[in-house]
């Protein structure tokens, strides 16, 4: 069974997706695997930056995307033997990831990898195009949203950025615009996808709403 969750940055998707994956069991009694598609784009961006390659250079970045030894183990993303999750949310990766994720052949590499990882499993997958492109026929599809002010506040309070609140808001607006205007895989509310504005809600309220909808 696939539970797909999309939405812009800072809506709490990752936290909710992790909570669902931890607490649910599929109809077959098996646990859920958590897949964060944004982290795959971030890891490819990290590889490019480490190698001194401009992540917006589509030809070179694609080579690195194809060659990157990316794997999910126990819900954590590995590059070869290194668990890289802690390196993926730097301001530098933040700045470069959206242009890289707009490169269509890189999207295909990532989409194939996600489908491969999820094949035959119960999975909670999250990102921008999980409900529309990668798993349009998922059993459950959700879109989490929140106001820009609220999203900037949440990012600021995560404490992973060196930017001030206003700069975070500006960076989010820029990234939103890129994420919503891609040739392929852009962020939009797909038909039949359950929409939830989380602005005034606590994490537990969001979790409970989705949990109720899942009816499992
Ligand atoms: O969810 P995130 O902020 O970690 O995602 C990082 C970037 O990757 C974001 O700018 C959008 C892009 N992305 C995408 O294009 N498609 C996805 N399925 C997930 C993320």
Brief characterization of the structure:
By secondary structure, this protein is of the alpha/beta class.
Sheet with most strands: 5 strands, parallel
Shape: globular
Regarding quaternary structure, what we see is single chain
In terms of structural class, how would the helical and strand content be classed? alpha/beta
What does it look like?
The chain has about 220 residues and is α/β, with parallel strands linked by helices. It is about 50% helix and about 15% strand. It contains nine helices and eight strands. A five-stranded parallel sheet has the order 2-6-1-7-8, sandwiched between helices. Strands 3-4-5 form a three-stranded antiparallel sheet, with helices on one face. Helix 2 (about 35-50) crosses helix 4 (about 90-100) and helix 4 packs parallel to helix 8 (about 165-180). The protein starts with a strand and ends with a helix. The protein binds 2'-deoxycytidine-5'-monophosphate (DC). 2'-deoxycytidine-5'-monophosphate binds next to helix 2, helix 4 and helix 8. The site of 2'-deoxycytidine-5'-monophosphate (DC) has 15 residues, from helix 2, helix 4 and helix 8.
